[in-house]
Fold this sequence. Notes:
Blueprint: H1 2-7, E1 11-13, H2 21-26, E2 30-32, H3 55-61, E3 68-72, H4 81-94, E4 98-101, H5 112-121, E5 126-129, H6 134-139, E6 143-148, H7 152-161, E7 165-167, H8 174-184, E8 188-190, H9 202-213, H10 216-232, H11 238-251
Parallel strand pairs: 1-2, 3-4, 3-6, 4-5, 6-7, 7-8
Helix pairs in contact: 4-9
Amino acid sequence: MNHHLRLCNWLLCNSFYELDSPACNLIPGIIPVGPLLLGNQLGSHAGSFLPQDSTCLSWLDKQAVGSVIYVAFGSIATFSQQQFDELTLGLELISQPFLWVVRSDVIGGLNSEFWDGFRTRIVDWGKIVEWAPQEKVLAHPSIACFLSHCGWNSTLEGISMGVPFLCWPYHGDQFHNKSYICDVWKIGLGLNPDENGWLITRHEIKTKIETLLSDDGIKINALKLKEIAKKSVTDGGSSFKNFKSFIEQIKH
C-alpha cells in the first residue's frame, strides 16, 4: 500500500476534513472530497449490489416521524442461526416499527417455521426487504436510528443524514469506525456480547435501542455532524474546494 501510494499523483479520500482532521494531517497529500453520495449525482447511476425494493419507501411514508429502526448489515456480513434468532427476537421485543434488510445469504439456511412465525407476528409494524435504497431510507423523516455493521459507506450515509447509530461491526475497519461513532463523534452506541463473548442477546438489543432512542445528546451530535458534512460539499466547503483544486490540477 505504502509503495503504491508513493507512485500516486493524487490520493482522493471519501471523507471530509472536519470529520477526522488529525488523521488527515498525518497523511501527506491526502485530498478528502467526501462524503460522496449517490443522491448527489445527476442522472442515472450504478452501484447497487442487489435489486432495490422501493416498496419500503411507501411503507416508511405511513410511519410516524422518528419512529422506525432501520437495520442493515451491508453485502457481506453473515450470522449463525442462533445469533440471527436473537436479533429477530430482539426486534420483536422492542415493539417499535422497524425496516430490516435481510439478504437471502445472511445465514446458511433460514429456519422456515421460526421465520414464518416471526413475520406473521410483526406484520403490523415490521417491514423486511432483501435490499433497500439506503440513502433514501436514511433520509426519510420516519427513521429514528440505524442498526449497522459500520461499513464506511454506511457510516458516511448515516452521518450525512443525521441518523444515530447502533453499532454491530463485523470485520476489518468496521470496528475502528464503531470506535469513532461511539467514542469520538458520540453519535451512537455499541452492542456488547454476553459473558461468553460471542452472542449479542435479544435483551442487549432491546435495551440498547431503548437507550439510544432516549438519548437527546446523541441525536443533537448526529444533527450537528450532518450539517458539517453538508457544508463540506457545498460551494466554499472543504471537500468542495479540494475537488475543485483536483480538477484544476488535471486540466493543467
